[in-house]
Amino acid sequence: MPEGHTLFALARDLHEAFAGTRPVVTSPQGRFEAGAGEVSGRELLHATSRGKHLFLEFDGERWVHVHLGLIGTFTVDAREWTAEAAAVGAVRMRMATDEHVAELRGPNLCAVVTPEEVTAVLDRLGPDPLRPDADPDRAWARISRSGRSIGELLMDQAVLAGVGNVYRSEVLFRHRLSPFTEGRAVRRASWRLVWDDLVRLLPLGVATGRIVSVEEQVLEVEAALGRGERPRLTERTSAVYKHAGEPCPRCGSRIRTQVVAGRNLFWCGRCQRRR
Ligand SMILES: [Zn+2]
User: Which domains does the chain have, with CATH numbers?
Assistant: First the structure.
């Protein structure tokens, strides 16, 4: 499933391509025909994301709310690169100007909503580490009261918006936290380290299109971006995610996996031992 950094980059790309234009919006597949008709020809004011949710604001107080879910994709291309005939698969929403075309396929949700409905969605979401105004104490208020495990809490979008299965496993590994520690047993200082780390890591995901969480790679990407260069990602970018059965890069112990909050969690049984 795309995590917050993917949605953030997508909102940025959509905004750059369409803000200030009046795209023709259609639903080639037909399932968003009425909604497309409502926004087609209106000016697109903003494209923004919050966590895994994407919002397209059109004039006349009409918003398109998109959630990609597990398999959804949203592509943004310059028009000359995309022949009309190349539109393969079921396109739920297509947005086109003379210069750009964007195609949404297989989303979990694509609907025209009111400003009040947008506010209601935002109110249900926890802070998003990619937003400069995000308040980590809002997440802490929930974590510190919870008997659920931190591995489960990090996946709960009402606690924290944007973190998914990969960042969850990786950030807990980076801070030697057992994913099975109850929220109320996590120290506030540990939580702040996790939050600050997500604030550091997620923008690298936006910049590279990949989740980079192995410290040497993190430093390399930060240095490349600092020099204004395109970072090269050739080495392993995750420490534990999808490395079950392999030796932990820190202690050599076997990396384990188990389903937590519906997805495979990865951790090291030795250096993330429960305290
Ligand atoms: Zn280890």
Answer: 4-124 (3.20.190.10), 136-268 (1.10.8.50)
**Would residue 213 be called left, alpha or beta, if left means φ above 0 and alpha means ψ between -120 and 50 degrees?**
alpha
State the distance from the centre of ligand 1 to the C-alpha of 255, rounded, in angstroms. Answer: 7
Give per-residue pLDDT as tens, 112-140.
Answer: 999 999 999 999 999 999 999 999 999 99
- Token pair 């009046």 in the structure block, residue: 22
Q: How far is the CA of 249 from the centre of ligand 1 (A)?
A: 7
203 is catalytic: no
Q: pTM for this structure? A: 0.91
The full DSSP string for 36-51 is: HHHHTTSPEEEEEEET
CB 247, CB 254: distance < 8 Å: yes
